[in-house]
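INFO batch 0412 | record 1 of 1 | parsing
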Amino acid sequence: MMLFKNPLFLIGFIFVAGLLLTSFIYTAAVDNEVYQIYHIYDENKELIDSAPIAPRKESWLGTDKLGYDMLSKVLIGAKFTVIAALLIALLRMALSIPLGLMLGAYFSRGQKYINSVVDAFHFIPLTIIALYLLTPVLRQQPEGFVYSFMERMTIEVVVLTILTVPILAVLIGNETRELFKAEYVISSKTLGGSRRHILIKHIIPSLKDRFFILFGQQLVQTLIVMAHLGIFNLYFGGTILSNDQLASDPPRSFTNEWSGLIGGSKQFIQWAPWIPLTPIMCFALTILAVTFMVEGFSRVTTGRPVYFKKKKKKTMPTIKKQHPIEKSQFDFLDKFM
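INFO prediction complete | emitting tokens
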């Protein structure tokens, strides 16, 4: 397959697929239990270090303040983070594609009014809206959670999906409307092709490559929003808050997904930076891997880069040298002037 011959797509695919596979295998091997190491002793049984332990051979990514291994935590939470982002991105595309195609094919006259309404969403940060809607759902109350674990996950997926559907639908509708102006589409209309026939035979095949690129971009955007929500202590599946006023334990996540690891450890950024930087780096590497896949796919299918565009070199204007024969002709003309 041509896609896997592209190094960018291959690197991104191997990273994401390997991360998911490793997460499932590791979780099954340890029975979903996070490895804990609170003290480290030398050969003479003398104390060397205690939690939080900085990265070393006994714990490659270090431990948190309770001695839980950070590598173990990110591996267990990887499947929840990546699968949740994949599901949200898929649902966004599944809803936006039919709406956008209908908008561009059947409501092209009123699309400019719809665009003016939807454009307002570009100026409102998605994280702020999600924070307002999801806080009463995901954050634990003193009497407990209002919704069950499955209900909390479902509501978060639905909210993060619906928030971007209007923008995506308008974007797809605009591209559909432009394709209806193409010469081959006009020719198909002239020959009696219906709008449904044109959508199936011409518009969708022309946009299918663009759909994958949009899917990758939505996957990246979903991961970014999840990281932002984690900073505000809103974790996928719910945020467990400590009701003990004497012990100020940080908020915890049900699933060890990465946004929860960020939110529950951001206070350690100064004196134990490896604790919050571990999930942050996992987010960054996963986003970079998805970006590589989108870039590789675009180069294979369309031949055009999406992110890594080469800068055009500035060239000095060249002065055309005058041919000797042309010079003699102008000299000849000068004699008669």
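INFO post-check: The chain has eleven helices and four strands.
INFO record closed
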